[in-house]
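Notebook entry, structure prediction.
Reason for the run: the old model in the group folder had no record of what sequence produced it. Starting over properly, with the input documented here first.
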Amino acid sequence: MNGRPELGAAAMLWTWFLDHWDGHIARKTRHMRLPGMAEFGQSFDGFADFVHGVWFPAVIIILVGDGSGISFGASLVLVVSGAIRLSYFENVGLTADAKFIGIPVSYGTPLLAVMLLIRPLIWAELFPTVLALAFTALATLYVSTFVRVPAIQGRAIPIATIGAIALSVALVAISLSSPS
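New structure, fully documented this time:
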């Protein structure tokens, strides 16, 4: 990242939207699968979600916050909540009407991108705290049972893809235009 978390977030956005396409493609090509491929894909998907939606934002929160107590605390809450959320989903899955119980951990990726995009609009000394609080709130929603979120599927996949690419391009532009 070389001190440019925007570039890392731009790359993670590609991981985020490709995560939606792999499931879509897997459903369309299920007749071509070898034994064990579905199980592997499901396990690997959870790992990828943890990396781009939990671990990466947690690292950025600590880096942006210079290892402060609030950045470390927010990252710890994020990692624990993300692990609980993914474990729950692995065992329970979607509701009968294709909704997640709680916010999916993958939503951390676009939240981080948006936060880094608006970073220049927030007082520099305040931004690390705002980022930590935003992710603490999101982590709480990861494990909430009162929130139901529809899965991104069908026509929503290309829309999410276009949004992710646009955010990614904007993050790269901001990163390249600012001094390191």
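Summary: The first strand starts at residue 99 and ends at 101.
The old model has been moved to the deprecated folder.
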